## 1
Amino acid sequence: MALYEHVFLARQDLSQQQVDALVEQYKGVISANGGSVGRVENWGLKSLTYRVNKNRKAYYTLMDITCPPAALNEMERQMGLSEDVLRFLTIKVDAHEEGPSAMMQKREERSERGGFGDRDRDRGPRSFGDRDRGDRGDRPPRSFGGDAGADRGPRRPREGVEGGAQ
């Protein structure tokens, strides 16, 4: 049997219990067709990059699946018919990963760090305009007067353009 990683996005107005019920429903579809579902990770309610069917957020869920292709096709067919599932993606893998996925590792690392407020700050407080503008001795002062193009000389017409020299 083939190994798959399957992620689906459920609507934002569902409860976590309804999302869990969806997972159980799709587990039943896989097992009824001769497959099995290993790890299931609920990544929680996350913001979407762009709106999908008028939803700005969605519940993300990852499932590790071992099943024949027919079972996967049936589950994806049912997900496509469901109004609660916004999007899904299935990837065939050589082996299932051990331990938590990358999304769950990020969350655990964040909690170990203690958030953003506990970082060591080596720079003092900064205000918006605290840079020393100085003399700017490396370039001449700007002039915004009427003589802006005086140092370039007179303009010559371009060749090959209407109104230019021919």
## 2
Amino acid sequence: MSKSYYEFFCPVKTIAGHQALEHVPYELSALGAKRPMIITDAGVRKAGLLAPVEQAFADAETEIRAVFDDVPPDSSLETVRAAAALYRDNDCDAIIAIGGGSVIDTSKAANILVTLGGDELVKYSGAHNLPHALNPLFVVPTTSGTGSEVTMVAVVSDTERGVKVPFTSYFLMPNAAVLDPRMTLTLPPHITAMTGMDAMTHAVEAYTCMAANPLSDAYATGAIRKISANLLKALETPKDPAVRLELAQASTMAGIAFSNSMVGLVHALGHSLGAVCHLPHGLCMNLFLPYALEYNRDVNGERIGELLLPLAGPEVYAATPAGQRTDKVIRHIRDLRDQLYERAGLARTLRETGKVQRSQLEDIAALAIDDGSIIFNPKEADRDQLMAILERAWG
């Protein structure tokens, strides 16, 4: 896919490896930060994941001044204000986010308040409304799925108004993403499977949707190769640090890819399903991925077929005639979902979730039509076409 014009941007430093956490105090001090605050959630703390981080600071001049561990699964404006207050009370000068998507979004939003002052977060919502760079923010992901550690987006719930408030700015991008396999060794099988398919979908849509470019392609195919080679291994040997590190890198690579080339129909439907039925984002991605590829295939089937190489490897790719590669890609993804269902109970159809009513499909389709991601899908979709995809995904 030749591009006459594109932009690619990722200023986030990646610090990755089996002792990556030990480098954090030095990297913070290089930015002039000496008094970081940790933002996390109760589950991360209970799993003992703060211990290696705190140990890394044991002999450093940099000291952890405060720990905010009260981030809920769906973060809110109140949570962000509470975190910002603790930061100010302890005279902190940097944030270390340790957790999944909600913790990272909370940290990005709290960084707005502690840098720019005040408690009025909503006035900075929308796209590119931050006036200048924010205080240092390091992100230590504890799942391998969202890619939020390298994106410029945060979403926080306004519980009073019952809406989600989005923030988009290059200044929201963290200074560093710290990928240490110790942080994902305790992930249960279901979460491993779900977050793995979240990253897989980011990479597949980054490659097959309209804003793909040569640089995002390199990150997307690299991510797909790593996920395909390691996701099932992580279920077989969950404590293998090498496998966990591969998945962590894949998630970050997929995040870099999709934040530069956007996503499409899977995300439009997934966002809408999540809003209507309150299902986790990664599960929503898994539910729609093969059906969206089937829908798009008559427009970009050749492009989809190219993914057989990173998905299935060179032998399968070489043995498959060009005209059959698209089918093989979709079948490969279906087979992977079947194995994730058998080994980790990850639902493949809307019916299997037990949380979706058939009567809700109309509402999901109506929301998906207005979702921003649908703009970048290679094939347009009206409400009837979305309903047909949802019926296929029903199972």
## 3
Amino acid sequence: MKNSIERITINAEVSHGKPSIRNMRFTVAQLLELLAAGMTHEEILGDYPYLEPEDIYACLLFAARMANTKSIIPLAAA
């Protein structure tokens, strides 16, 4: 999971610059909403076959870092 945060990209041309998964038009917020609604990892991966398990972990890590205001998340250029 060391490099999983790198799966989260911010690109002004993708989803209006919202954090997304691997530069796809699937945002971190969308995935987190699915998890909050009670979907399991397996259900999400079944419904969205282009997602990978590491994408889910990356979104959770991103959310955890965003919730911790003392952390700084370095993002690579998109």
## 4
Amino acid sequence: MTSPPTHRKNPLRPLPNFIFASRWLQLPLYLGLIAAQVVYVFHFWVELVHLLKAVLGSQTDLQALVTSIGYKSDVAITSLNEAIIMLVVLGLIDVVMISNLLIMVIVGGYETFVSRMHLENHPDQPEWLSHVNASVLKVKLATAIIGISSIHLLKTFINAANYDEKVLIWQTVIHITFLFSALAIALADRLMSHTQASAHH
């Protein structure tokens, strides 16, 4: 009985091997994004601590919150109101969504462009990572950016009295542009998928 043939991997020639190995130059970029993630986590907890202390009556933390969200009022602000709480919470949500975007870029980008992470049997493997590629990553990033833009737009409208009308108009235009860009990316990805499927049949 003959044993099945074994397929030997052909080693790359020196120049292609050098070019292919250049993908590891992206590693410091992903490590830098992890450092940015640490900064966002720190910022999140600083804002949350300010909010909790302001709830307990700390005027120093209340003023720190008011300054950070750019909230202005005709009367002196001596206690939390609904608008301030909503703006702070939206800011925290914004940090979380940007953090999610960072994770998507770090994990998905590393898996797609640098090296396999072999997470197939890991219980915490993200669902989207099992079928991630450059096109899927592009669509997911566009969707995440729309979510972040929506939060920013909502924060601006809640605090609209402190913004110039041109700022409101331009933020709305930019958000609509993000929407159309995401739709165009998703449509192009779908057309490419159908073209590739037709070519295989």
